[in-house]
Amino acid sequence: MEHPDVVVVGAGVIGAACAEALTAAGVEVLVLDRAGPASGTTAAGEGNLLISDKAPGPELVLAQASLARWPRLLDELRSELGHVAEVEWQPKGGLVVATAHGDELLEFAARQRAVGVRAEVVMDPYEYEPDLTRDLDAAVFYPEDAQLQPVLAATTLLAAVRRRGGEVRAGVTALGLRPGGVVTSAGFIACGAVVNACGPWAGEFSAAVGAPINVQPRRGVILVTARPMGIQVRHKVYDADYVGAVGSSAAELQTSTVVESTMAGSVLVGSSRERVGFDDTIRVEVLRVLARKAVRLFPGLADVPVMRAYGGFRPYAPDHLPVIGPDPRVPGLWHVTGHEGAGIVLAAGTGQLLADLYLERAPAVDPEPFRVDRAGVMA
């Protein structure tokens, strides 16, 4: 493809979703990634599609629209691609529990219900998760929460892009902009627009092209256990303090208990958040905290071996909202980043919103809260 309409820089799930939505509308798209598809933040994710952790506000509105779109989009992709569109979709729901201050969880759920979230107060959480700790103060079940395999999701979206005539080039680094296109490690590419979907590296790319935005990396680590014997984890289960950790702006380590099983039978244990730049060191003390908290929630995990740990960087914006839209300083430059740990659930809606704005269609979600030139984002 010599002269694409749009070059998307970044082949993670957000860039892939943007490229898919654009090509579905007939836009010619070239996706570039300096490494390979889904090899960055997307590969380091758990695949959570959560409504349960979002307070009423713009992010929840986008998440609701996106979560409603995901099953429809996957059905469309299965019709188009066949077996290639397997993403391990699991609409299994999420159980949020409080080991203390249960009234706060119940109040949070009530505020969510007021804006259309299905949040069901559970009187007997052991019907949902028989192996949970008995030391619980409150529990709420969220039937809309789901899970998928993030790398498969991104590669499926990119397969649709290719099928429609788009192109994906791995090992190509976008270096800067010139009038009429983008300068890359493989030469100049003429195009009509460039989408910065670089995730945690979006701040670096934006500075390189002369339109800096305040998006920083936020580090997270996940433990993976062997298949447990004699213990079940049926849903996504997390302690209510997870909501506070997600919304925290602190740079220091934040941890909360998140436990879920995979289709392969292993158990994923999180979560941690800290701003340490691009230091990818996996620290043993962080793993110990995660393990201790997981055992507190599911005591039977104490005897389950940990197979490995992995970490990654999430794109953090100071107000915890994604950045979606055109840059007012550089014609033809768009930013789609800042989703932090919610990129998977927000991807389908984000791609649709970007396509709506690019094609000047009436957007399904109000784009105003995600503007590039809002306070604290545009440096």
TrEMBL record:
Annotated SUPFAM superfamilies: FAD-linked reductases, C-terminal domain (SSF54373), FAD/NAD(P)-binding domain (SSF51905)
Domain of life from the UniProt record: Bacteria
GO MF entries: oxidoreductase activity
Protein's name according to its UniProt entry: Glycine/D-amino acid oxidase-like deaminating enzyme
Organism of origin: Actinocrispum wychmicini
Cellular component aspect of the GO annotation: cytoplasm
PANTHER family referenced in this protein's UniProt entry, alphabetically: FAD-DEPENDENT OXIDOREDUCTASE DOMAIN-CONTAINING PROTEIN 1, SARCOSINE DEHYDROGENASE-RELATED
Keywords, ordered alphabetically: Oxidoreductase
A Pfam family matched in the record: DAO
Domain FAD dependent oxidoreductase: 5-357
Organism taxonomic ancestry: Bacteria, Bacillati, Actinomycetota, Actinomycetes, Pseudonocardiales
Keyword Oxidoreductase: yes
Claim: Amino-acid biosynthesis is one of the keywords in the record: no
